[in-house]
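Bumping with the actual sequence this time:
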Amino acid sequence: MIKWLKRIVYTVFIVFFLALGVFFAIRNPQIITLDLVLWRGPKLSVALYIILSFSIGACVALLVSSVALLRNERQIRVLTRRYEKARDEVDGLRKASITKELSVGKE
């Protein structure tokens, strides 16, 4: 039930932001040339430059966050291995302790 509601909410958000982008592009039809220090861009509308910069910023943010995510996943794997090793060692010590107690009890 929650899955379809989630899809509907995402679809509404996507349609809303697409409509907002189209409305913004229609309201800002001015043509400009982007002039950076070493590069001069083509003549495009203000809205297109803003939408392109927003898209490039979102892609850069995704790349940066994916690096952090990969680092965290690697650390989780390392810590999981350490935990399993320590758990196996504790289990071995418990079994050894039980075996020692049983052997002492037989004498």
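The tokens above came from a reply further down the thread. The helical segments are 2-27, 46-106.
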